[in-house]
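Onboarding guide, step 5: your first structure request.
Type a short instruction followed by the sequence, for example:

Predict the 3D structure of this protein.
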Amino acid sequence: MTQILSIKSTQPQKTVNLTDFAVVKVAELIAAEGDPNLALRVAVRPGGCSGFSYEMYFDAQIDDDDLVDEFDNIKVVVDPQSAEMVRGSTLDYKEGLMGAGFAIDNPNVTRSCGCGNSFS
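The system replies with structure tokens like these:
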């Protein structure tokens, strides 16, 4: 008789996931900044035509209540209020004929604008 074991992951879900392409690009951008202590901060701010917009920038300051996830030595930092709106999102970096840039796939979005930069 064969017994099948179910193994659950004990690792907590990351607030924001990064694709392999995004990790590489963020690492390149941090290296260009010349400060290996920088983290990528992902935030949500009021604004935009749909109510909220994403904000991403490099930050050397990590507050005690920030949520921090690591991807190959890249730290991604999210403040608690933004975390509720981006939890489960995936950040990707895409290059193509129409340009290159970061894109967020957020499962929490109920409505977004045509430009893709704001949501509700």
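Each response can be followed by summary notes, for example: Strands lie at 16-18, 39-46, 52-59, 67-71, 74-78, 89-96, 99-105, 118-119.
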